[in-house]
Prior knowledge:
Largest sheet: 7 strands, mixed
Helix content: 40-55%
Number of strands: 7
Radius of gyration: 18 Å
Order of helices and strands: HHEEEHEHHEHEEHHHH
Strand content: 5-15%
Strand order of the largest sheet: 3-2-1-4-7-6-5
Number of helices: 10
Amino acid sequence: MSSSSLNLLDQAEALCPADTSGPEWRLRVELAACYRVFHLLGWTELIFNHITLRIPGETPAYLINPFGLNYGEVTAVNLVKVGHDGVPLQTTPYHVNRAGFIIHSAIHGARADAHCVMHTHTTAGMAVACKTNGLGHDDFYGAELFGEVAYHAFEGITVRADEGPRLIASLADKRVLILRNHGLLVCGTSVFNAFRWMWTLQRACEVQLAADTLKGANVPLADAVRLACAADAKAFEPRESLEKMLFDSVLRRCGLGAATLTGRT
């Protein structure tokens, strides 16, 4: 386990600056690692889209990527701490895409369990978002998400705050929101939890995209099978360890050192 990236997170945590609390620094390290994981997996859209993380104990305070940087350039140090309006709470040399934070701030503000919110524009995700029937539940990954997916109608580029209540109404109590004609969104209780379900959602979209290009009809699953699959996926033990192991397996492939991940030496 000496080469484990969970040890990397511990090593990065030890580089905590004097002007940052320990709990906030740990969250910065985890979120910076998540941006690097997204970069490795290709879940990026140049400088656009966001993964945001709530800082517990401060109301409201969230971490977001500096606007203009590639995901592979995000570090624990340069993550920007913002309030619910997207305005930085600390002096920073970086810009914040306040318009891009509208979706995230609405969900963070309405859902106490939405500590981490991920939004992507992957090709497979956007393709499924453009289909009338949305995500199918007739494959291994799609079945795991049966009953967990909500939809929100496209209203144009999300730059208007008044769309927030409608987003929340669409999401309701679900963990996955497919933004019609737009992209994918997942909210979770932690970086690890949200990543697990974003990975599942992305795989489901990729499989659906591939299956629909082949000749012949897809094999449908019965709702009883879908329900059982979704229940088993949620009950998979050990849940938190599984989520961390999954994240860790990808983070190891990034080949990062603590100094690179944190932006500190």
